[in-house]
Amino acid sequence: MTLPQIRNAMKPFHKACLPKSGVSPDVWEATHHGEFPPDPALQCHYACLLTKMKILTKDNKISKELLGKQMDLMLPNDVIGPVKDICDTCYNEATSSDVCEMSWQFVKCYHEINAELSLMP
């Protein structure tokens, strides 16, 4: 799949997570412009998305193993290396014990390193 196809495939996850997280459309749209406010609804929206992507474990931790498997299944060969490097870095940056905040830290870190490789819808 191409990155645009992956982002498109993520849209149903985003829509399914909206009622659960309650993130405002303005806050969500701002993330597409590099703004990641520490909004609890946004943070929990990312936790929901990562759960639907099957990279969070049952104890609400990011699994490097699950993350690697999903990347191998979905990502085009030309971006797999850079995306894995970003994920390794951000895995170590996402240190909160709160699943919502940790998910937000991971996604924010990823975007700050290379927004063009973002998988978020």
UniProtKB/TrEMBL annotation:
Transmembrane segments: none annotated. InterPro entries: PBP/GOBP, PBP_GOBP_sf. It is found in: Secreted. GO terms for biological process: sensory perception of smell. Keywords: Secreted. GO terms for cellular component: extracellular region. Signal peptide: none annotated. One of its GO terms (molecular function) is odorant binding. Belongs to the PBP/GOBP family. This is Odorant-binding protein. It comes from Aphidius gifuensis.
